[in-house]
């Protein structure tokens, strides 16, 4: 069996034990399969586990949450059904602290605050719309944000979503603050990035281990992409 290309140097693996596999997902990869037929992260993880542990059959990989295809950062996969069941409950009930970094073209006003919207997703167009008041079947969505500072000609925001709705951070920053994420043409930024990603990164996750109950904190290094280079100074990460 050939070694899977992804994780060939294990750069993307942030943590692994008997129950969890925590990945720093590159932008451009689906977390779970869809109608495109492109190989998702879950399948790549299965191939990695089969190779590593020389499994003759399929390896168990459970998906408890997702981040959008053009978004990079932390994804927690379950290696056992027990872990998956508990993770599903934890993500559903927001029993963890999620931190994202986002680059915008202009600073938010005010520089820090809380956004609450009711989000309605159009599955046919794969677009979410945010309303400031209760709206039909809209789901209440909340996040807090703060401006960390200028990053070259962009601005680095730290975002902590309280809820986990589809496209939540993307649409709330665009609608609520008028600061669409760099590269996110779907939600109002003018130009795409060369790699067709968007400048949104699932930076940190604090969570209780679903089986051992240990408190865990994962931090995902920024992608090796030029648009993130100026943001590395905030954590002294080397430029790509």
Q: Can you give a write-up of this model?
A:
The chain is an alpha+beta fold and about 240 residues long. The chain has helices at about 40-50, 80-90, 170-175, and strands at about 15, 20-25, 60-65, 70-80, 95-105, 110-120, 125-130, 140-150, 155-160, 200-210, 215-220. Strands 1, 2, 3, 4, 5, 6, 7, 8, 9, 10 and 11 form an 11-stranded mixed beta sheet that branches. The chain is globular and about 55 Å long. This is Pseudouridine synthase. Keywords: Isomerase.
Helix count, DSSP H or I runs of 4 or more residues? 3
Unreliable parts: none
Share of helix, binned? 10-25%
Question: What's the average pLDDT?
Answer: 92
What coarse outline follows from CA principal-axis ratios?
globular
Biggest sheet descriptor: 11 strands, mixed
Give, in order, the helices and strands. Answer: EEHEEHEEEEEHEE
Strand coverage percent: 25-35%
Tell me the span between the first and last alpha carbons: 32 Å
Radius of gyration: 18 Å
Structural class: alpha+beta
- Extended strand count: 11
Family: Belongs to the pseudouridine synthase RluA family.
InterPro entries: PsdUridine_synth_cat_dom_sf, PsdUridine_synth_RluA-like_CS, PsdUridine_synth_RsuA/RluA, RluA_PseudoU_synthase
Pfam family, one: PseudoU_synth_2
Domain Pseudouridine synthase RsuA/RluA-like: 19-174
